[in-house]
User: Which sequence fits this backbone?
């Protein structure tokens, strides 16, 4: 983390600094998961906690603790490269859209479908799985979901396919999503 977080930190900045914060807020405090408990990016953590009648310092401590826990769910691109090259193996699963996967993907990866999900969840719980998205921004929620289904050797690729391209295989084209 490059910024100092406090109860006066805006929620948008907090979500950027702590990628698993939304999951942690909802799991413990039921905040941010539905319209009645939603928050804006401009609202501070203190303001959110004040209107929810929750101690903001306690919430901040929980978010920082959750962030430390989340750190164990990441794997660096170079480590995955070494697993694949060394024969230790890993099942690479692409969580992006079908269009993104068909345009560019990490060699040997599988596109995540409902059928693949059923196959993976019914398979060996000890198999090492690496999930990836575009830039690693939303993959931790899926890692937590896989782990919650007994797949304890599931990891999120830090930096996503973009990190893979920058750090491991420059032949994998980088791209930017344009959202209307």
Assistant:
């Amino acid at each position: 983390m490059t910024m100092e977080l406090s109860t006066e930190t805006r929620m948008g900045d907090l979500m950027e600094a702590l990628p698993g914060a939304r999951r942690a807020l909802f799991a413990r405090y039921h905040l941010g998961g539905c319209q009645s408990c939603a928050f804006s990016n401009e609202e501070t953590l203190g303001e959110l906690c004040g209107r929810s009648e929750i101690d903001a310092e306690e919430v901040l401590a929980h978010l920082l603790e959750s962030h430390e826990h989340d750190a164990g769910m990441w794997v660096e691109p170079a480590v995955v490269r070494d697993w694949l090259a060394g024969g230790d193996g890993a099942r690479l699963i692409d969580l992006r859209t079908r269009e993104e996967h068909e345009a560019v993907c990490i060699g040997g990866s599988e596109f995540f479908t409902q059928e693949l999900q059923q196959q993976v969840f019914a398979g060996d719980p000890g198999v090492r799985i690496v999930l990836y998205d575009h830039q690693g921004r939303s993959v931790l929620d899926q890692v937590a979901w896989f782990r919650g289904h007994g797949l304890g050797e599931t990891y999120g690729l830090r930096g996503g396919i973009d990190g893979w391209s920058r750090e491991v295989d420059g032949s994998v084209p980088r791209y930017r999503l344009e959202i209307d």
